[in-house]
Amino acid sequence: MLNDIYNKRIIELAGNIPRLGRLPAPDATATAHSKLCGSTVKVDLKMDGDTVTDFAHDVKACALGQASSSIMASHVVGSTASELRELRETVRKMLKENGTPPQGKWEEIKFLEPVRDYKARHASTLLTFDAVVDAIGQIEAKAKQPAAAQG
């Protein structure tokens, strides 16, 4: 039943999203959009080497996208690029391949596990993870450019 995915914790997370807004000078900005439901998440990211040092986001999404974004914003600072790529893959597998939810600081993602039964909701749930990984890729690509090309 659809009510299962909109459980009390999802509603709490969606109603209390930290780090809303935009960063004044992000290292990268990425937007993820779900054509199916119209949800959009735009993230601003700052990194020092491989580690996220600052994060902000603009979330125009359903409760599931908001809850995912809330969890991301609560734990992303201090996370590494590889950790965040692995997290996105873990959440994707949780939704699409009956994988287990992540553990540790990301364990609240378990509250999104019932979404696996509603394929139409997968995209909005994954938006924040896709946008963060996209932003990391942009930052890494810039770091590989010669200094003269970074203008």
UniProtKB/TrEMBL annotation:
It holds the Pfam family NifU_N. GO terms for molecular function: iron ion binding; iron-sulfur cluster binding. GO terms for biological process: iron-sulfur cluster assembly. CDD domains: IscU_like (cd06664). Residues 6-97 form the NIF system FeS cluster assembly NifU N-terminal domain. InterPro entries: NIF_FeS_clus_asmbl_NifU_N. This is NifU-like protein involved in Fe-S cluster formation. It comes from Bradyrhizobium sacchari. The lineage of its organism: Bacteria, Pseudomonadati, Pseudomonadota, Alphaproteobacteria, Hyphomicrobiales.
